[in-house]
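Recap from last week: sequence in, structure out.
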Amino acid sequence: MPQPIRRAVVNGLSLVEDVAYVGLGVLLSTLALALLVNSFFTLTHSLWTRSLEGGIVGVLDQILLVLLIIELLYTVQVSFREHGLLAEPFLVVALIAVIRRVLVITAEIAKLPESSDNVFRHAMWELGVMTAMILVLVGSLIMLQKYGKRHARE
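Predicted structure tokens:
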């Protein structure tokens, strides 16, 4: 393939990639703002009706979901700027998602004794697996940061 045609194809694909990243950024931003507003109204409604205990898990889940979406937005921004994928932002997104799930399970644990032993056992297994995932993800982040600092010095 001649060089000018190859360059035109690469430029065209790069443009498609940029448009996709901008579209993802707009969608994620809209979703994050909508969830944030919804969380605010849910919290104020719970405070107004004095039913905070029942809705706190839902509000916490929504707030953590907003944080997760913001981290995804940051990942899209980095990918747009660098024209490549970096592992660290994805690990942070995964870590937030796992922590979000652990917090939701932990908040709902008060309801579990009312359930069957099988449901309680399943929740405990899930917490154990999630804890192991947190350790692996944090270890991976630490290793990536040390590896990055070592290569930056060289």
